[in-house]
Write a structure and sequence with these properties.
Elements (H helix, E strand, L loop, with lengths): L24 H13 L7 H13 L6 H16 L11 H4 L16 H12 L3 H12 L4 H8 L3 H21 L1
Length: 174
């Protein structure tokens, strides 16, 4: 079973006694962990993981990851309600770089920077885009990406570094 532990064991085609699809526990745990890493220190990993699991289990076929993300965001809004007038946390606020932004201030980019970034991404090869997309958007490991591309992990690392160098160059040149 390459895709990780599923509730009840077996593959995605298995169903539990209620006719519901099984949930990829490892995938949901990974999502919870990556979300928790970007949150302020007052949030507990176990709370985020529990909320994500409940959301995934309540989801329809193929919507587990989306439902888990939604459940996490709803939980964070509920927990943070006292500090904001409307109790809503924007998605932009949730995902910041802890090293550069220690405060809870959201990080925004200008329209000009956004357009430069789009143009820079357009210069990436298909392989570079697959690696960047897998690592930073789909939150896959280098091992998972290497398996998908039929490459070694070291080659995926080389592709990642080349792609990031290309993006940096294009952003500075523009």
């Amino acid at each position: 079973m390459a895709s990780g532990l599923l509730v009840g064991g077996g593959d995605r085609s298995d169903r539990n006694g209620y006719g519901r699809p099984l949930v990829n526990i490892e995938g949901i745990k990974k999502l919870a962990y990556w979300t928790w890493r970007r949150l302020p220190v007052q949030f507990e990993l176990s709370d985020i993981t529990s909320v994500a699991m409940v959301g995934a289990l309540q989801a329809g076929d193929g919507l587990e990851k989306i439902a888990a993300k939604r459940a996490i965001i709803d939980h964070l809004r509920k927990e943070n309600q006292g500090s904001r007038s409307n109790g809503k946390i924007s998605l932009t606020t949730l995902w910041w770089n802890r090293q550069e932004h220690q405060s809870c201030e959201p990080y925004y980019i200008s329209e000009e920077t956004r357009l430069r970034l789009i143009r820079a991404v357009d210069t990436l090869s298909t392989q570079e885009m697959a690696v960047i997309n897998g690592l930073f958007w789909e939150e896959k490991t280098s091992r998972e990406i290497a398996r998908e591309l039929g490459k070694d992990e070291s080659r995926v690392s080389q592709i990642k570094h080349a792609a990031l160098a290309k993006l940096r160059y294009e952003m500075e040149a523009a």
